[in-house]
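Look over both lines:
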Amino acid sequence: WSFSLFELLTDLRGRDDFKIFLKKEFSGENLAFWEAAEELKWGTASSMSAKAETIFKTFLAPGAPRWINIDGRTMGLTVKGLEHPHRYVLEAAQTHVFLLMKKDTFFRYLKSPTYKEIQKKALSPETHNFSTAQLEQNAQNRSPGIHPIILWQQEEVEKAKAAAASAPVDVKAVMSKIDRKK
């Protein structure tokens, strides 16, 4: 996650941890807006207008409950685009918010005790002391899975058996075909 903000946001666990950090700092609206813009971008066309209106009322309208601080030019372009919402109408605002998070909150997150604790857990994970009974129970509950290649091989064997059983093979005819090819 420390490589880039994009890596952090594409990992669900990373995004959840980042969200917790932002809540502690009372600055979760940028990430919430970024996620809402992603939902609009990848959502269904039928829900696009309703989602766009909700996003406007939540993040962009004057006095919005989770107002995001973006520059006037980007705000103007975005609000104008929302008159006729489409999948990428929030792209400029989303990019602006992403860059704000990348330059500011992401680096604060990497220096935070929250991230340092996550790093510590990743570098030295907790050992699990399962009892023998727990391990045996787990083994009993596990269903034996068959690898897809083995399934395919079994199907091929069955096909070959079915083909062999269906009609007798005239060995002389097969041999004469082979001899003609030589």
